[in-house]
Amino acid sequence: MKRSAFRFPSQRNPCFGNSLSRRGMLAAGAMSGFGLTLPDLLMRQAFAEQKTYDAIKAKAKSVIHVFLPGGMAQQESFDPKPYSPLEYRGELRPIKTTTGEHFCETVPQLAKRADKFSIIRSMTHGEAAHPRGVHNMFTGYKPSPAVQYPSFGAVVSHEYGPRNNLPPYVCIPNVPNEFAGTGYLPSSYGGFALGSDPARGDFKVRDLNLAGGVDEQRFLRRKSALQIVNHSFDQMHTADNVGAMDTFYERAYDLLDTPAAKEAFDINKEDNKLRDKYGRSEAGQRLLMSRRLVEAGVRLVTMTYGQWDMHQNLTGNMKKTMPSLDQGLAALIDDLSDRGMLDETLVMVTSEFGRTPKVNTDAGRDHWPKVFSVMLAGGGIKGGIIHGASDSTAAEPDSDPVSPADLAATMYRLLGIVSDKELMAPGDRPIEIVDGGKLITSLMA
Amino acid sequence: MIMLKIRYFSANVSIFPHRAAREAGRLIGRQGRTLQGAVSNAVKSFGLGKHVLDSFSCVGIAPRVRCRTTRGAMPNAVKRLRNPSRRWAVSLASTRPFPKREAHRKHCCNLCVFWDLKTNAWLLICCLVLRTVGIISGGKIGSESRQDFRFVELPKLLASFATPLRSVEIISGWKTGSESRQDFRFVELPKLLASFATPLIVPTVLSLISAPVSAADPAEAKHSNQGRQSTAKQLTDTLAKQSADQLSVYPPSIQLGSARDFQSFVAMIRKDSGVTVDVSKEVDWSVGDSKIVKLNQNTVFPIADGKTNLIASYGNDKVRIPIEISGGSKRPAVSFAKDVMPVLTRSGCNTGSCHGASRGKDGFRLSLFGFDPAGDYYRITREIGVRRINLARPSESLLIKKSIGAVPHTGGKLFDKDSDYYATMLEWLQDGVPADKASDKAAGKADKDSASLEATSLAIYPPQAVIQSKGEGEVSGQQFVAIASYADGTTRDVTRLASFSSNNSSSAAIDSDGFVTAGLRGEAFVMARFGTHTQGSQVLVLPENLKYDAPKIDPHANYIDQLVDRKLGQLRMLPSDQCSDEEFLRRATIDIVGLLPTEKEFHRFVNDPADDKRARLIDQLLDRKEFSEIWAMKFAQLLMIKSTNQVSYKSAYLYANWLTDKFARNVPIDEMVRELLTSSGGTFSAPATNFYELERDTLKTAENVAQVFMGIRTQCAQCHNHPFDRWTMDDYYGFASFFSQVGRKNAEDYREKIVFNRFKGEVKHLLTERPVPPTFLGGDRPNTKGKDRRVVLADWLTNPDNPYFAKSIANRVWAHMMGSGIVDPVDDIRISNPPSNPELFDELGKRLVDYKFDFRSLVRDICNSKAYGRSTKTNESNAHDQRNYASATIRRIPAESLLDCISSVTESPDKFKGLPLGSRAVQIADGTTSNYFLTAFGRSPRTTACDCEASTSPSLSQALHLLNGNSVHNKIVSGKVINRWLDKQKLSPETIIDRIYVRALSRLPSQEEKTKLIASLNDQKNKIAALQDVFWAVLNSREFVFNH
């Protein structure tokens, strides 16, 4: 919000720094000192008068949601506890980041770029079972026996729809779990799964090219014949699944008609050097693919990587799994910065929960939803901030606890979606996109 | 002698509530590399030296402290306490040397405190002393760093010392454990005590401790089950008795057990049209003998013992309800568990978002929905001294001042000062906060008092209501009454104490007093929860001036139609018309055999003038082997048949064949399941044994059996009581015990394993770490001694009386044929997910049993019903309904069948691993065998036993694949159907289009379609390509991929 206060002068003069007089700077600073800027105030007034849903401006145009299934250990990543006893801190050592904080030695590349992203160390929810934890982190809601909630991707595609004829919500490599679906929203808002791993040599997103022997002309004829056949059936049936299939056919036509969109799926179009920089690993190539898609117009990419449910041999598993993610994420942040996309792309690295403070008898750590870490970068997130803290053994949030609803609300706000907007579930049942949820303002640029 | 064992190695060791002491506990964990350091830290920080010494000496006793450490050194503080001439001893002992750097091993040092007591009197003095110094109250021991938390309440333990101790109050403040888990269990101490406790204490203590563990008393479960069944029965009865303006009064009988007791009642008339009206206020109420009962509005109060009647007169109708009063002159004291706790639950104090959160709220914690009355009692009366209660001036107690909003309270004001809730709480406080004797009930010597503390079942009346919503300003609704029954045979009106909820508040919102207000047209299930019981009632809401001509229900019709139509009648919904013959042929063929009708079948069926052609078609289809293949595949998915690292391809193949063979030979499903569950032998020679190889984990096996064969999800109860159902951890581990004796060994062939019954092995409860005897879900503990436990289980499961098996299987069959289960999802049957048509749900199960588990007969019934034969076209009244089968549901054809359909219409066979060319995808034995088409269209990966593994939701990948992929275009080209028709058979384009339509869509094209398609052909030279395009378009059409 602070930035928007001095955006007017900067529009007149592209040179951002000079346009600001000393006085202007003071004025903006004085207001933001109270945590409120003028537009902010006006906006609040406006909100008080009527519940309007389209008043916020998007900072992030797209989201890369990196999900680490299984529950990544907070201690062995972004929240080491070097001063706790060995059985709590584990075997891995901390390293200093550029901002003077400590990360675990598993993420040296990210530590060098710690000023570019922020960490929430006080993420917390109470669900220690995988499916329930995943549900929290994909929907911002606690699982309910009565309602199926839509995932972030489904909501974003519901709110914004496709851009540049690309599917708004893409899953790499596959739809990661049952909660990444559309919940109570129609299934047409579901994610498009690549169906193949970009790290593989034979990677190809299938069926993006017309079948052999079919040219544009013939495809057009086919389409018109299909229309004739579909006509009566479509007229008669309005069921959700039939409608969704219709929508997907429309999307498919759009996609096929847009060479640039199709090209976004071809990772081989990427420079080899850059591919190496991301790392020729599952994590690296999936991250690179995410960037390609986001650059081309996909609104939300959900990418999964690794198996983080390390009940045994945590040190060994961490050393095996983390380096390629560290390299990939570091490369992604560099790459997004280089392309000037970091400010408009929110990178969110989450996991369903953290792991127990104490190392177990199998030298692993077990499920721990009470406190864990989440990484956020770009898209209106400040760099170099550690938000919240866990206690001395990473057992409980010590300050500023962040719930999945808070995180979801913040993410939606950055995307310009009002998170208390009500979507309509079957039975004319209005349900808010996020139930409550405080914005993590200290992280928002 | 009481001993407290302190987990030395863990983080949060604290004996005393002071922050200093807690810190000291952390220090022990963190810095205490040596035992001496730890001990001296502890002793210093806990203030043992100063406080204990001082306090003891002030009453003229000096404690004797003995310190045993492996290192020999004695902390100064301990030395100071040492005086051999006294009878008190504080002993600090370690059982094991402390490990220096072995972080990953579990080590523990016992810091033992012995209170060597001669008599209770000594303890009394000691308590008073300690109380004075304020040390003991609130002491807490435990560990929260590991998953296996222990939570032990000392109050219970100490409460058993009988009265002198109880009055002491302080010692009962001791508590060991951790609050970091949601489900607290009181388990650890028996173990601790078993070895140390003196004969004096052992029996009582043990009895106390096992109390909460056996919370899920099987008898209790049974009761509630019966309760449910009886409600269902009443529902059926009520429906059966539909006659003109029938007056009914609920509850059907009234019992008043004490002077405190009362009972509210409701009256309802059911009109001709089925609409019910709450006439409780209009009815003229009277009682037979006004000397023994008093009537006040819609409630009766007892005066003296005896029997009489409640008489309701409405018009010419008169209904008599028997009233029985016993103990009407006695006025029992307010009980904490029976009276106070329900007030807390009802007021929402112990919900997850308030004090019921695992860490409480604003410093005050209650157990979630009151699962731990003893703990709540302790926290209210003992925690933080006596801050929450004021026995001198009860009305000044914080507990009630907060609840009436007299002091600031985050949760706000919960009830009025003049409410009955306030009166109950106040009376309890005035009585001096008496504790319940609940704690002895676990020992098995439950006396009458304690047995009646927990309700054994719950009932909600009326069992069903059909309300007409009125216009603006007018409220129409129905009052509900909730009645709890107790083990001693008494009942209690809990309408004011149960919490009510509705699963569809926009249609039927229920307020906290059990009054349902009619809203939008629709159907709802209102539930009452009291204690651990939930009971529901169906509410239908109809618009007032709805014109509805009920179609006559044919008494000779298929039982399915009778039940479906009756429900539709209640909903004022008109069923859609019957579908056309073409549609029926296609639908039935896809559903029953997973294929499309051939052209020959199509013409034969359409041109058959006979009336019974649909029934004959169904019989023909049921006789085909493809029918059994479909079901074999469905069960192969649920049984997760696939080759893995452990299970060889050969095993998986043999297993799938075994299953297919069972279905092909029409082996009754109970027999098949029994054979499967009790299988022993080699995985090659007895392929059913692969069931125990594909899932080798005992707990998972039990979960899968419950989910696949009973439709019950028990997973939650592995770590805590099921939050939305009745299953407790005891149920879970008791059920898992049936599979604890499965043994496995290698066979000659390295790929083969032998599964056998070991006749030994137990499943340990997560918390008690004790074996749990095999217990049927919601049932008894059978005697399994010397038997294969699996046989015992299989006999119970497949018994016709089993309450879950037949219904669950029948529901799966129904869901496959109709598109959605009566309970949906089919494998999540629970009270809070009620069937959309309970009578039908029960009836289908019953029929399956009657058919001796031959589900071909059940499929025949379903397919022959009018409900199955309806059109997908909806009408105004049923357009928004998906659960009541007023119209047919459009479903995308499942992945395997869809591929088979495409392959058969294009005559282009598939080749799958291990199967000959031309085999169908449905026949794939090994779950790991797949192709892109199957994966993209949502074939079950067979990784879990969930029915949701197979998905039919559309996606962009599916659209792209049908448009561009090899499954359509390539198959059309390689199948050469068009080439043959055009070149060899010289058919005209019109005929070819007809034949494409018949093949793929089971209908002839309409004139309009035909004209347009022919027109598009005319300007093209390559007729083959042009007709292929038509074929392509047909296979890409919605009509093709959906079963309608």
3D structure, described in words:
The complex is a heterodimer of chains A (445) and B (1044). Chain A has 3 domains: 30 residues, no CATH class; 317 residues, Alkaline Phosphatase, subunit A (3-Layer(aba) Sandwich); 59 residues, no CATH class. In chain A, a hairpin with a 6-residue loop joins strand 13 and strand 14. Chain A contains 15 helices and 16 strands. The N terminus of chain A is likely disordered. Chain A has 445 residues and is α/β, with parallel strands linked by helices. Chain A is globular. In chain A, strands 6-5-7-1-8-11-4-12 form an 8-stranded mixed β-sheet, with helices on both faces. A two-stranded antiparallel sheet of chain A has the order 2-3. Chain A has a two-stranded antiparallel ribbon with strand order 9-10. Chain B is of the alpha+beta class. Chain B folds into 6 domains: 195 residues, no CATH class; 85 residues, E set domains, domain 4 (Immunoglobulin-like, Sandwich); 98 residues, no CATH class; 115 residues, no CATH class; 130 residues, no CATH class; 152 residues, no CATH class. Chain B is 37% helix and 13% strand. In chain B, the strands form 10 sheets. Chain B has a 4-stranded mixed β-sheet with strand order 7-15-14-11, with no helix packed on it. Chain B has a 4-stranded mixed β-sheet with strand order 17-25-24-21. In chain B, helix 19 runs antiparallel to helix 29, helix 27 crosses helix 28 and helix 35 packs across helix 36. Chain B is globular, with a radius of gyration of 35 Å. The N terminus of chain B is likely disordered. The interface between A and B is large, with 74 and 77 residues. Chain A: This is Sulfatase. Chain A: InterPro entries: Alkaline_phosphatase_core_sf, DUF1501, TAT_signal. Chain A: Pfam families: DUF1501 (PF07394).
